[in-house]
Amino acid sequence: MPERASSYAAEVDWAFNFVFWISVFFFALIVILTVVFAIKYRRRPGVEADNSITHNTKLEVFWSVVPLGLVIVIFWFGFSGFVDMRTFPKDAMVVKVHAKMWSWSFEYPNGVESTTLHVPLGQKVKLRMDSSDVLHSFWVPAFRVKQDVVPGRYTYLWFEAIKTGTFRVLCTEYCGTGHSTMLSAVEVQSPEAFKAWMAEESSGKNLSPVERGKKVFSLKGCAGCHTVTKDRKKLVGPGLYGIFGHEVTLAGGKKVLADENYLRESILDPNAKVVNGFPPIMSLIPLKDKELDGVIEYLKSLKD
Amino acid sequence: MSQAIDSIHGDQGQLSHEPHVAHHFESAEQQYDSAKLGMWVFLVTEILFFSGLFCVYAVYRSLHPEVFLYAHQWLDKGLGALNTVVLIISSFTMAWAVRNAQLGQKKALMINLTLTLVCAGTFMGIKAKEYSQKFEHGTTWGASFHPHDNAFGETHDGGELKKEDMPPNTQLFFSIYFALTGLHGLHVLIGMGLILWLLVRAAKGTFGPEYFTPVDIVGLYWHLVDLIWIFLFPLLYLIH
Amino acid sequence: MSGQEQMQGAGQGNHGFAHPVPMKILVGVAAALIALTILTVLLSDFHFGAFDIWIAMGIAAAKGTLVALFFMHLYWDKRFNGFVFIASLFFVAIFIGFVLLDTHTYEDGVKQYQQDHPPSSHSVPLSGEHK
Amino acid sequence: MTSIPMPEEGTLTTKPVVDETNYLKSAYGIKSWLLTQDHKRIAIMYMIGIGIAFLLGGLFALAVRLELWTPTKTIVEAATYNKLFTLHGAIMTFLVLVPSIPAILGNFVLPMMLGAKDVAFPKLNLLSFYLWLLGAIGFVVVLFAGDLDTGWTFYAPYSIRTQTAVALAATGAFILGFSSILTGLNFMVTIHKMRAKTMGWFRMPLLLWGLYATSVIQIVATPVIGITVGMLFLEKLFHIGFFDPKLGGDPVLFEHFFWFYSHPVVYVMILPAMGVISEIITAMSRKHIFGYTFIAFSSIAIALFGFLVWGHHMFVSGQSSLMSTIFSLLTFSVSIPSAIKVFNWLATMYKGSISLAPPMLFAMGFLFLFGIGGLTGLFLGTLNTDVHLHDTYFIVAHFHYTMMGSALIGLIGGLFFYWPKIFGRMYSHLLGTISFILIFVGFNLTFIPQFLMGSMGMPRRYYNYPPEFQAYHQWSTVGSFVLAAGLFTALWCFIHSLFRGEKAPDNPWGAVTLDWKTSSPPHHHNFDIVPPVTDPYDMDDVYWDEESKGYISRSQQAALQELAAGVSGTQEKNS
To answer: How far apart are CA A139 and CA A145, in angstroms?
Structure first.
């Protein structure tokens, strides 16, 4: 099992090992008996099978009731651990998690947004998660915590980090081509480092439009489908490097100049003018005006 | 050992076979019981098949009761009740037809089968009228749910439908309505096909006291279709 | 059922397993079904609060039992056919019961989401994204 | 029908000799196969069809394993990889595992075990084969009509949005569901109505209890996947909005619908395999089964409890905590009947005289692999460990141990067991043993590493994976090729036996059930005279006959002599 970095990780591991050793015991019992019987009673001339044994109700009831008792105990450990996971502490810091096709973004109570979840050590954190397109699942192996993110409703999850460090976040509910690139990280920092990080982030309000555009571009997950590298590599969507001011051919064969209006319209109503050869599946991403202007400035800045 | 079998094989192996009994059954009764049990097991699969839609109905009615209260006023209770009575009569004539087949009354059997077909036709006619009304109002299922202005105003049973208090997700009701009644209608059509096939064979006089299984089997299927409508009618039309 | 009818049915040279339902029962059951239909329609004008659904379902169940027992021969049939029919209702009950139980217990997550993102009530969002 | 007088060999050189006592030779020509109503011929057609589907599914599996050799792109792009694992999953479950044992071994053996001439509805039996074929063609057409990249579970919002051929795959699954329903219906009615005169429920072989429990599940669960796939079809074409959150639908509702079928269906896969293992272990250990009633009722218990537990697939999917707790508690109720069966099989082997022929090797392999498969299920039924382990490679390994390791090994063991009866040919035990060793080693080498990486943080269905898991993936890929080699060896052993296998005796293993009291290959309509029904596991009823190198049943021989005496007696009277 991976390292233990959350309050109930130890409990989960305990239950895991408990079930593990019970399974090893029964498995060894089955394998040894099979091998011993196969060798001891192998077919030899002159040795007849004792065909008289047909059943022994007492023995059979024994090996029905004993496993039943064992599994009830296993259920109890699993259940008590589960209760801790699903009772949400009142004093937890609520962070809104937005999952979308192939990227995570975290929104703090004071409005700061980030693509990685920064958490102070020992602080209980409650995540309120929603998805804007398909099912995703938020999994931090080090915290032993996982919860699907379902579009159309909020799903919740809480944890308390007990170790500082960076812990990987993965998506475990299949969500399409970029399912395996939908990674993020939980940065557990000391309270001071967290305050410093938060201050630096919230001060970032007066970024220049291009910097803000760059931040929004990665935050809203545009990078999941569009590349900004020179090679204009096609992912699900077209590469956007040097797109500004060039002609693009649309699905109907019509040619359109990719000027500021075209970029603005393609963000506000993605499927109005889809470039030829691409599926019309870009979902609507709500952007504030400053963010929209920032993204357009950022796209304009992508030229050699 | 095989020679012993061959010598015995000659006279005793061949059972006295009645006309309608397949070779692998010992007696007509075993064949009849097998057919009945097979049909009942098939009816179980039909019940489970419809249970999926009844479950969707139950879930969305419990999640959005206001949608069902509002949207069911678009349905015409009178037509629904009439349809239920039509199907009950068709079920009655079908049961009567099974009785006629068992007693070998060929003419009565054909009359009853035709009556059942006529009732089924009326049922589908009334359904078609209701559907056309829905399409006219634009109150269809899921994404294509756009009620036009003529959909609002005075309803069949005197209520008043105003556009502004239409709750969100009203399309759910009509998705369920069209899924349930559509699937049921499909089963009615299949039933009509089967009864037509029975009518043709009855005309040739194949059914009598010693061989009436197909009439009995189609009768069971038809009664199940009626049974499903009996539950469907109050759930969709009589919501209050 | 009435011995005389059964004997007469059996007497007609069939194999004793054909059992025609007497006319009295057929007509009686049909009349009862129509009466119950009228009853349930009339009752729909009265409001009994939470009981409405149960009354409607009760009447429908009564009609269903009538159809199953007499029109579908279960009353005279082998016990196992009836058992198969009842067992299927048991499985349907488990299926709908567990799903409903789950729907109710996760409802608050859905309600809060809909407060924050009210789906536009009138026209359904027809933007291309889910074409 | 009296046996047709044999024309001498030479006269009809072109037309081969019609031999009633061998169903393979009782009629010739393609039409006699394609339109046959003989349950034995339908079983062979299923065997060929399912074999090809298994080959196709296996190739997809090897492609997936090859792609996972390196953390990033090895042979295919992400989109193709998604299609590969989806089609591997869909073909293996819908086309191969669900019909496999009931359709192949069940179809062949069930009527004979009951002493009947055929299943209750032979035409329906042929119809379900052609429905299976139609569904299979549907899936093959999906390959060319845009593939399928939703995972075999078709989960809601993604399966509605994606541009791949989900509607076509849904139709294919619907038709396959219908075929499965009809087979289940056929078997249930046959077991109820066509048992031999003196064969009560508790004198039936345990494979029939397994098949009966399987048909109960097929009849009650399959219609629900039919309506689910139908609704998905309506969702794709008409946007009906049951599962699409944009139209007020609820994706978790789809999961409920899907798993209400898909959990019981894993018991459709395992129960027939357990039945076959009961037959193999008793015959090979020359011992009466230990605890017949417990094993019989545990099959029914697994079938019924199987309907109460589907929620353990959805602990983290947004299902409420209350329901997760209820489902977790009920899930543990299913593990008890499986435990009873395994212990009873072990008790059967106690004090037996165990031959290590290939069927027994596969039966013991089954005990080993099902042991791991069943016990790892405990981790996933426990609530808090499943939160960590859900949708990881731990789950992939678990269900491969139960599906591939138990159901498929049960099928291959069953084929090795019934092969002499089906084709009248023995096979080389050496080839069979080699194939077992390769399959056993390859299988464990493939899936043990997946348990480890699953618990350490490797999610399911990942095209690019974190580099630290590369070693595990590479071991797993090597294992999968060893497993493939083992499977091809088994195939070669079977084909080799068809041509060079020597003639099989009627009862090579000494089983006592009625199907072994027919000739190998059996008569066109199984029995002329149904042999007397004995206790299905009373091994004293048969004795080893050195001359025919097979077992002969004392009760059957006595009945035949008595009948012969009776016939000669009447001939004296009326002559």
So the answer is: 6
Best interface-test mutation with A: which of C103, C127, C130, C131 has the largest number of A CBs within 10 A? C127
Q: Would you call C16 and B29 a contact, using CB atoms and an 8 Å cutoff?
A: yes
Residue B26 contacts C where some CB pair is shorter than 8 Å: no
Fold of A207-301: Cytochrome Bc1 Complex; Chain D, domain 2 (1.10.760)
Nearest one of D282, D332, D361 to D536, comparing CA atoms = D282
- 3-state secondary structure at position B115: helix
- Find the helix or strand (DSSP H, E) in which D479 lies: helix D470-500
List the Cα angle A190/A191/A194 in 5-degree steps: 85
Share of chain A above pLDDT 90, in %: 32
pLDDT in tens, D553-570: 888 888 888 888 877 766
List the structure tokens of D534: 């004995």
**pLDDT bracket for residue D486 (50, 70, 90):** very high
- Whether residue D270 contacts residue B200, with contact meaning beta carbons closer than 8 Å, is answered with no
Best residue of C113, C120, C131 to probe chain A, by most A CBs closer than 10 Å:
C113
A270 min Cα distance to partner chain C (Å)? 8
pLDDT in tens, D268-314: 999 999 999 999 999 999 889 999 999 999 999 999 999 999 999 99
For residue B29, give the amino acid letter: E
Phi, psi dihedral angles at D151 (to 5 degrees)? 80, 155
Pick the residue from chain D with its C-alpha nearest to B42: D185
- What's the CA dihedral at A57, A59, A63, A64 to 10 degrees? 20
DSSP 3-state of A150: coil
Distance CA D357, CA D443 (A): 20
Of B164, D350, D270, D376, nearest to A19 by C-alpha is D376
D354, β-bridge pairs: A42
Q: Where are the domains of chain D?
A: 505-568
**CATH superfamily of the B61-237 domain:** Cytochrome c oxidase, subunit III, four-helix bundle (1.20.120.80)
Whether D348 and D280 have beta carbons less than 8 Å apart is answered as: no
Direct distance between the N- and C-terminal alpha carbons of chain C, in angstroms, rounded to an integer: 60
DSSP A121: T
CA angle A286, A290, A294 (to 5 degrees): 95
Distance CA C82, CA C74 (A): 6
- Cα-flanking dihedrals φ and ψ of residue D114, to 5°? -85, -10
Decide if C80 touches A, using CB distance below 8 A. no
Report the residue of D163, D195, D220 to disrupt the C interface, i.e. the one with the largest count of C CBs within 10 Å. Answer: D220
A–B touching, 3+ CB–CB pairs within 8 Å: no
| Residue keyed to tokens 């060039």 | A246
- Tokens 């304009």: give the residue: A300
Put simply, the chain B residues between 12 and 51 with a CB less than 8 A from any chain D CB are: 12-14, 22-25, 30, 33-34, 37-38, 41-42, 44-46, 48-51
DSSP state of A181: G
Cross-chain residue pair C60–B28, CB shorter than 8 Å: no
pLDDT band at D438 (very low <50, low <70, confident <90, very high): very high
Topology of the domain covering A93-203? Immunoglobulin-like (2.60.40)
Contacts of A10 in chain D (CB under 8 A): none
pTM given for the model: 0.88
Q: What ipTM was estimated for this complex?
A: 0.86
* Contact (Cβ atoms closer than 8 angstroms) between residue D491 and residue D411: no
Cβ count near A62 (within 10 Å): 12
Q: d(Cα D85, Cα D78) in Å, to the nearest integer?
A: 11
3 state DSSP class of C68: helix
Give the nearest chain A residue to D315 (CA atoms): A147
Chain D partners within 8 Å of C103 (Cβ): 250, 253
C-beta separation of D99 from D45 below 8 A: no
